[in-house]
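Hello again, I could really use a second opinion on something today. I've been staring at a protein lately and its backbone has me curious. You're getting the sequence in one-letter code plus the fold written as tokens. I'd be grateful if you could look everything over and explain what you see. No rush at all, and the record is pasted right below:
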Amino acid sequence: MIQDLSVFFSTESIIVFILVLTRLSGMLASAPLFSTFPSPMQLKAGLAALTAFIIYPFVIQVSDFTMPTNLIGLTGLLLKEMMVGIMIGFSASLIFTGIQVGGHLLSIQMGLAIAQALDPITRSQIPIIGQFYLFLASLIFIYINGHHWLFSSIHESYMSIPIGMNFDFAGPIIEQLIMFFSRLFASAFSLVMPIFEILLLITMLMGFMAKIMPQMNIFMVVMPFKIYVGLSLVAILMPPTAVYMMKFINTMLIDLNGIFMIS
């Protein structure tokens, strides 16, 4: 028993725990939900420490790396682990960014781009429709247990990007990441495509009417009409939009998790 405890508190175990904690901290610092909404730093630190305590026995079993013998080597390992965690969290946050961009384009087409709200992520003002879709995506993210997929991606990442500097970050991982990013914004824009097309068609029709009746100020009439039609379509299409968004977020999280299962 005493020997087991000595292994548990050995120098190697402590360094592995610190490296696992660093990767988790990077993920929590950039992941959606954890970095989107303000929460106490003590809560994030406690969650990272608890999760690292659960994961690091597995990491010790699968890791085979040269222990750093100086501060420079340890600093390099910490920076590498932090960047891997940030990469995983940032990739997941791009899912929400794509949805937000789709809502932003819809706001411009509706004429509500001037109505803006504070974005808790970037601390900047964004159109209110984009913020609405962001909050809806956050609720769906919690509903489908998206945070579980993030921690699962961290767990799987130790198979494809193990602890240590002797790792091969190339080939299948880069290819899968490029495919992930290429599908992201196209799929997110398709979320608002039906409403966007209807509003674009209304704008084109009003342009023809302005040519036919130049004495009438058509665009003074069409602006409030587009806002009314746009908000009505957002409300009417909310159930299928939520279903599509749920499938989209779930698919992208599965793909993100699958990237780091490649060994």
In short: The longest strand covers residues 116-119.
